[in-house]
């Protein structure tokens, strides 16, 4: 539920005030509960009585047919102990210590990309999406991917429009085969990186099945570029209209870490599509979810809860970082440290090398996505100088 320019729908506030834990009908026709308060969402995310395993017959689904978030066997669709086994393997790559070692490389990549762009450019297609792809390729130890095809497959798999089911399945199958090819190529020519770590677990200690390995590679490519690119696109528009936010970071770059947290709170690029199933009756602060019922812990509802974030729609660059944009509990975003680091370094390079960056089009003319799980600008034209050339 979003309004103009991706702002949360007023429906969140209305529900929070009148019936904070209320039922909603999903596009599939199924009904689940939707949280609108911070405390309810936090409990759903962290209480082990809520399961991500929707394989039982009759479990609620967001959409009929294939969706990436509900595909069986994926990391986000598992409960412990299977989830714990896979996550333990991957988490060592995304520790703060490991992520901080990539900072110099990210600054270098960002500066090279920015300096190669013309005076006026589309921030979305020229900067916000190509850059995270380079980063995730470096993290994975893959020299490069077919960006055009990966974007097309990702868009199809995240589509909520009338795209035929067979087209979504075809995109998923082609993307899976592509990732399987990358795995096979890496076996023959191993390099340093996360993929090599996963291959050792598959081929050496046999802790990953081949299907788990390929599915994880696919999921990392989607999450590694789609989410970061979407947040960057939304954040750029917010900082540049009005331009006070960007000017504050130019004048005081030490504000960037706090600004990143506030932008992550404000510019979550979509509602959480993850349904959780109660395995027994659970008393939440706002009501009861019965065994077998589904609930969505709303990140947007939580991040704009005025009980936790006074004046929640305002951008406060030094606000305390308590947002739930990365989730909480066992499914806390695996790449949260990487995403934070990327945002910090990218904004740091932007304000240092393009201090006069400004919009090159009226903000109300910026086109936004429709028919997708992600809500972001389709394009965002900016220029380096404050005045037209």
Count of runs of 4 or more consecutive helical residues? 15
- CATH top level of the domain at 74-272 and 312-383 is Mainly Alpha
Main beta sheet? 5 strands, mixed
Summing up helix and strand content along with how strands pair, one would put the structural category as alpha+beta
Q: Proportion of β residues?
A: 5-15%
What is the 3D form? globular
What is the correct CATH architecture of the domain at 74-272 and 312-383?
Orthogonal Bundle
Please give the share of residues in helix. 40-55%
Q: How would you explain this protein's 3D organization?
A:
Helices cover 47% and strands 8% of the residues. It is α+β, with helices and mostly antiparallel strands. The chain has a domain at 74-272 and 312-383: Cytochrome P450 (Cytochrome p450, Orthogonal Bundle). The strands form three sheets. A five-stranded mixed β-sheet has the order 1-2-8-5-3. Helix 5 crosses helix 15, helix 9 (165-188) packs across helix 11 (210-240) and helix 11 (210-240) packs across helix 12 (244-251). The radius of gyration is 21 Å and the shape is globular. The two termini are 39 Å apart. The model has no long low-confidence stretch (mean pLDDT 87).
């Amino acid at each position: 539920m979003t309004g103009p320019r991706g702002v949360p729908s007023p429906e969140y506030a209305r529900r929070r005030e009148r019936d904070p834990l209320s039922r909603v009908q999903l596009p599939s026709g199924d009904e689940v509960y939707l949280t609108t308060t911070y405390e309810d969402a936090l409990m759903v995310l962290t209480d082990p009585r809520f399961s991500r395993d929707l394989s039982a017959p009759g479990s609620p689904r967001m959409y009929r047919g294939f969706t990436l978030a509900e595909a069986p066997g994926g990391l986000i669709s598992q409960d412990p102990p299977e989830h714990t086994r896979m996550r333990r393997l991957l988490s060592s790559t995304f520790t703060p210590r490991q992520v901080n070692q990539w900072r110099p490389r990210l600054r270098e990549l960002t500066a090279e990309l920015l300096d190669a762009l013309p005076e006026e450019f589309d921030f979305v297609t020229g900067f916000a999406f190509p850059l995270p792809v380079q980063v995730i390729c470096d993290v994975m130890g893959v020299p490069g991917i077919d960006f055009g095809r990966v974007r097309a497959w990702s868009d199809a798999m995240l589509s909520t429009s009338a795209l035929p089911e067979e087209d979504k399945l075809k995109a998923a199958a082609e993307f899976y085969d592509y990732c399987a090819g990358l795995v096979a190529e890496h076996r023959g020519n191993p390099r340093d990186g996360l993929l090599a770590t996963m291959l050792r677990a598959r081929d050496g200690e046999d802790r990953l099945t081949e299907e788990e390995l390929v599915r994880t590679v696919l999921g990392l490519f989607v999450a590694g570029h789609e989410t970061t690119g979407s947040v960057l696109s939304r954040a750029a528009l917010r900082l540049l209209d009005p331009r006070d936010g960007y000017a504050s970071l130019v004048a005081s770059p030490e504000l960037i870490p706090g600004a990143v947290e506030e932008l992550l709170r404000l510019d979550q690029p979509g509602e959480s599509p993850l349904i959780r199933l109660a395995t027994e009756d659970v008393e939440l602060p706002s009501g009861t979810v019965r065994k077998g019922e589904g609930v969505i812990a709303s990140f947007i509802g939580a991040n704009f809860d005025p009980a936790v974030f006074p004046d929640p729609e305002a951008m406060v660059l030094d606000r305390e970082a308590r947002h739930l944009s990365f989730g909480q509990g066992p499914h806390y975003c695996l790449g949260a440290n990487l995403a934070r680091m990327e945002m910090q370094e990218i904004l740091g390079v932007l304000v240092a090398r393009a201090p006069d960056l400004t919009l090159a089009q009226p903000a109300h003319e910026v086109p936004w996505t429709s028919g997708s799980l992600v809500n972001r600008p389709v394009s965002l034209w900016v220029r380096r100088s404050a005045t037209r050339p």
